[in-house]
Amino acid sequence: MQYDDSQSQILQRIAAALERLAPAAAAAPDFESAEAFIWQVNPEAFVAVEQVNRLPLSLLKGIERMIDMLLTNTVRFARGLPANNALLWGARGMGKSSLVKAVHAETRSIAAQDGQTSGSNLKLVEIHREDIASLPRSLNHMRKSPHRFIVFCDDLSFDQDDTSYKSLKAVLEGGIEGRPDNVVFYATSNRRHMMPRDMLENERSTAINPSEAVEEKVSLSDRFGLWIGFHNCTQADYFEMVHAYAGHFGLTYPADKLEAEAREWAVTRGGRSGRVAWQYIQDLAGRLEKHLTK
């Protein structure tokens, strides 16, 4: 079919307009720009985090065994050795998410001290709970990278009608591609199986085969080779946390008064935990007009 000059010009202008309307091609992720990123779904991107909100590993008290387990697993992974996905579950406010972030920094520091390049190659990528369904797409980007990644999801749990856990199961272990060798998945949850007890009980009471229905629900946690349980802290552990925070941030305060106030603060909060200790320290620093620089 032949077009005259005027028709060709019109077609060219239409084509140019369509090109302007089309979304720009996504830029390749720049994993060299930072040590930590947040996965963003729309538009797809890894948003660099200039300064990670975390505490030094030395300030996490009362969880020494948990620290050793996760740090050992992470150092192995950073060195290119086999490592497990990790589920940190249990009591609220006991430092589960703080531990993941602190271990990432400590692993990079250990590698730097040993003169290894693997530490600088270890990146932390946070994926939000509501974006779990997009995890396979984010892994496709990481799979092509020479870096190693800790993919971190905080407070991971699923409700009755939520089926996104099925796609997560396939990604972690069992799908055709599976988890890339340069990626490990760390998640925190208040529940060991990441699902409320009443949800599991409902499956038992309504399913034709109760055991099979429950097995499908809890099999997600089986994809995590490393389970690290956190429990409520003792008063001695709680006081150790408070003293460690006060010492680290240079808050000069009588020890007996510090403990008395911290005890009262825990009573008003309904329990003791690392989070409660940190909240008390923030209150104390405000009263003393001191800044807390992490």
Q: Which geometry do the CA atoms define?
A: elongated
State the secondary-structure class.
Answer: alpha/beta
**Main β-sheet, in a few words?**
7 strands, mixed
CATH superfamily of the largest domain: P-loop containing nucleotide triphosphate hydrolases
The tally of helices reads 10
CATH fold-level assignment of the largest domain: Rossmann fold
> Which percent band covers the strand fraction?
5-15%
Straight-line N-to-C gap: 70 Å
Q: Order of SSEs, N→C? A: HEEHEHEHEHEHHEHHH
Largest sheet: spatial strand order: 2-1-4-5-6-3-7
Number of strands: 7
Radius of gyration: 24 Å
Mean pLDDT reading: 85
Residues in helix, %: 40-55%
CATH class of the largest domain: Alpha Beta
Residue windows where pLDDT falls under 50 for at least 5 positions? 203-210
Q: Which features would summarize this protein structure in a list?
A:
single chain; 294 residues; alpha/beta; Rossmann fold; 7 strands; elongated
